[in-house]
Amino acid sequence: NAGVTQTPKFQVLKTGQSMTLQCAQDMNHNSMYWYRQDPGMGLRLIYYSASEGTTDKGEVPNGYNVSRLNKREFSLRLESAAPSQTSVYFCASSVSGITHTQYFGPGTRLTVL
Amino acid sequence: ELKVEQNPLFLSMQEGKNYTIYCNYSTTSDRLYWYRQDPGKSLESLFVLLSNGAVKQEGRLMASLDTKARLSTLHITAAVHDLSATYFCAVDMYSGGGADGLTFGKGTHLIIQP
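The joint structure predicted for all components is written out below.
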């Protein structure tokens, strides 16, 4: 049981390049999330998917798109990377229930030059 | 707009001492979470607090929730070096949302010195 996995772990892009961050979970969770973490800022929600087939914007969606490919996988795409998108990106998932505890992946450290 | 404020943001303390981290949030929320993050690592769930007066304890950490005051505390008893980490509190982003994502505080960077 791997939990939440993310690829790649590290990535360096040039301004204007595009890339997709991959996330998968093997816990049969309904909901999945993408957050970014910047120094001194805590985590901020980019997009979330409450269930397979649905996606919604979070606090900071500009410059990103997402795809909920199936129940297991939730990808985040940067169409035209900007230096302001330099950050650590975390994917998380949660199961429906009383607690809705979110379980986080190991993160992707992205640098945009 | 939901705001979550933690204080202090930075705390250096000695082993064996007690201390409390505070988390205030601005609107009604169904759940409050505490997470731990070690440097360069992911977030680890510590506690979920579901109702007013809820108290949970794990080892030297105890969390409590006062929904009327919109305040949660994370109390550290007889601190040890292994508890050095950044601690985040978070609440559901939308009231009753459940699956709608979390709003996080900025985190408390805790250093425990021998």
